[in-house]
Amino acid sequence: IAVVKFFLPIDTGLLGLLIIVLTLPKNLWIKLLPLMGIYFFPPFGKESVIPLGVFGGNVTLPILNWHVQTVSIDPLVMTLSIAFIDIVVSLFIVWNYDLAKKIPLIGKFIIKIESLGKKTVKEYRWIKPLRFIGVVLFVMIPFQGTGGVVGSIVGRLIGMNPLETWLAVSAGAVAGCAILAYFYKIIFGINIVLGLILMIVVFSAFAIYSIKRRKTIS
Known about the structure:
Helix content is 76%, strand content 5%. By secondary structure, the chain is mostly helical.
């Protein structure tokens, strides 16, 4: 059973990537897969990766006079793809938390995230009394460091069982990604340049906030 719990999330993740490649047109998955990849690296988070995916069309950027042409990824596809990452990662964490801490490299990362999770519980005291809803809302927040990994550890720290934690993280991931994807779809539909400016401003603000927050927590 332990072996299944370890490899099933990994196999599920690989299967998901294979399904994306086999079912989506090449011009879409070539854009989507790199976005899913950079989602793992700060300061990129839902707030930056999802708008980049939803953005599409032909536009000339003012001042810079750059001509940009790219394909738009459907908001539903973007939502499910990014949420899928948090869902799979959360499943691995809730099933293999103690084991993962003993794995070289991964263990150090998990211990670091555990420390972040403990400080997060203290910083966001409203999560604990709300339990399931609290974790859902926390994961929905479009800040770097509120995704599936930290959300899973926070759920564990406040006493939720693995299934409750995974369901809360999954619900929060889908809801948060959907709100962002469809919001930017509407904005880009109104004015592409306005949408790009908003995306840059939001990304910059969240990046600055995340950097300051990490320094404060450290």
